[in-house]
Design brief:
Layout lengths: L5 H8 L3 E7 L5 E7 L1 E2 L4 E6 L3 H8 L2 E8 L2 E15 L3 H13 L13 E11 L4
Antiparallel strand pairs: 1-2, 1-5, 3-4, 4-7, 5-6, 6-7
Length: 130
């Protein structure tokens, strides 16, 4: 059972940027903005193999995700969790996110030889302000 609320799911379905924090090899945090979505249970984003967040999550699947509504700074989602990554469907998924965020049918920033992956975050802790 997911710990995401209906309000969280609604926020994740909107065109909001998320920030994900992963753990570097030296133990320091790495934070990056990502396009985000949800399947109702997981927070889902997409990246390319070899990027820092991909390397970090391959080594250590611990992750934190923060989403702040750009129209209302007090409408937020903060979770800690674990991530797993899959290749299957990743190209179609980045195209879906490009439609959501750019209103483009295909992801326009694809690089030659790039291999995309779907990152699926299972929230284990929902944080509150404080």
């Amino acid at each position: 059972m997911s710990i995401l609320t209906e309000e969280d799911i609604a926020l994740l379905h909107e065109r909001q940027l998320a920030h994900v924090a992963t753990v570097e090899a030296d133990g320091t945090p790495h934070v990056t903005p990502v396009w985000v979505d949800t399947d109702g249970e997981h927070i889902v984003f997409n990246t390319a193999k070899g990027r820092i967040k991909h390397r970090n999550l391959s080594r250590n699947p611990v992750i934190a995700v923060s989403v702040v509504d750009k129209a209302n700074d007090y409408r937020t989602l903060w979770v800690k969790g674990t991530a797993d990554m899959v290749d299957d469907g990743a190209d179609a998924h980045i195209d879906k996110l490009a439609k959501k965020y750019l209103d483009k049918d295909t992801y326009p920033f694809r690089q030659p030889g790039e291999v995309r992956v779907i990152v699926r975050v299972t929230p284990t802790e929902r944080l509150t302000q404080g």
